[in-house]
Amino acid sequence: MKRIDFASRDDMAEQLAGDVADRLRRALEERGGAAMALSGGSTPAGLYEALSKRDLDWANVTAALVDERWVAPGEEGSNESFVCAKLQQNRAADVRFVGMWSDAPTPAEGLAAAEARYETVKGSFDVVVLGMGPDGHTASWFPHAQGLGRALDAGGVRLAAVKAQKSAVTGEHLDRMTLTLGAVSEAHYICLLMTGVEKRSVFEQALKAGPVEDMPVRAIIRMRPDLSVCWAP
Ligand SMILES: O=C1O[C@H](COP(=O)(O)O)[C@@H](O)[C@H](O)[C@H]1O
Q1: What number is the ipTM of this complex?
Q2: 2-232 has which fold?
Q3: What 3-state DSSP class applies to 136?
């Protein structure tokens, strides 16, 4: 595992934007296209803004979501709205976006439509950007969630519908869709972003032995020993 502590959130955003842009550029040169999967939340906002200013053949770059709350774009908590607002601007205005939400009543009922959209992303992601919640979730792999078994499938299934326990701390939205462990873990490069001392201690806890269901971020830590873990105060 590569652990990088940055001096500030701005440093983390700028340096990581350079690194991600280099990886996308290489994929564009080699294959004529590049794809990344991006998390929502709040931590990666600076990264996406910094990335949007990089000079790339954005029309041939796909930005898909790592996970989504089952809310329409424009509603509070929509990862689609967050990623598009932060990334789809400046030089990256033409980036091709692939989201998960549809007007199906539940994520389970929306799975087939989302899978069809994700089918248009050929091959593995060049880059996956993950975040981590204070409960040790990453993507929408929430501790002991309904659907966690499928979400942690390491085989060919790409997307899963998840019903999380309502968090007493954050009051998080229950209905989610997420990339599976299999889809994330086959990416060429995966970075896990976190900020603040609280998340650092959550991460230290996740490194200890213990059930994946208690802290699902363990699944990717254990599966990808080359994970890049980026932290800023
Ligand atoms: O629920 C979510 O939370 C995580 C972490 O979010 P943050 O606000 O603490 O950065 C995020 O990675 C995930 O995409 C999101 O759906």
Answers
A1: 0.96
A2: Rossmann fold (3.40.50)
A3: coil
User: Which atom of ligand 1 has the smallest separation from the CA of 79?
Assistant: 16
Considering all CA atoms of the chain, what is the largest pairwise distance in Å, rounded to the nearest integer?
A: 47
Pocket of ligand 1 (CB under 6 A): 39-43, 66-67, 79, 131-133, 140
Task: Please determine, for residue 144, whether its predicted confidence score (pLDDT) is greater than 90.
Answer: yes
Residues 6+ away with beta carbon under 8 Å from 93: 58
Residue 172: pLDDT band by 50, 70, 90 thresholds? low
66 Cα–ligand 1 center, Å: 10
For ligand 1, the distance from its centroid to the CA atom of residue 61, given in whole angstroms, is: 23
Q: Whose Cα sits closest to atom 8 in ligand 1?
A: 41
Tell me what the mean pLDDT of segment 21-34 comes to: 98
Q: Where are the domains of the chain?
A: 2-232
Give CA–CA dist 24/13, Å, rounded.
16
